[in-house]
Amino acid sequence: MKNPYSVPKGEAVSYASAIEYEKYIPEMTESVNFIMRNINSSENLIGDNPLSVMYENHIHHSKFMANIFKLNDYELLNNTLKWVLNSYISRGFKSEYFQKELDAWIKVINDTIDPNYSSDIIKIYQWMKSVVKFIEEDNKNIVDEIPFPFDSQWENIKNKFFNLLIKGDSTEALQFSKSIVHDRKSLENFYTKVITYSMYEIGLLWEKGQISVAQEHLATSIVMRIMSYLYMNFILIQANKGKAIITSSANELHEVGARIIADILELDGWNILYLGANTPNEELIKLIREEKPDFLGISVTMAFNLDNVKNLISNIRSQSDFNDLKILVGGYAFTFGGDSHKKIGADKISTSISETLETSRLWWRDKNESKYK
Question: Which PROSITE patterns match (predicted)?
Answer without folding.
Answer: B12_BINDING
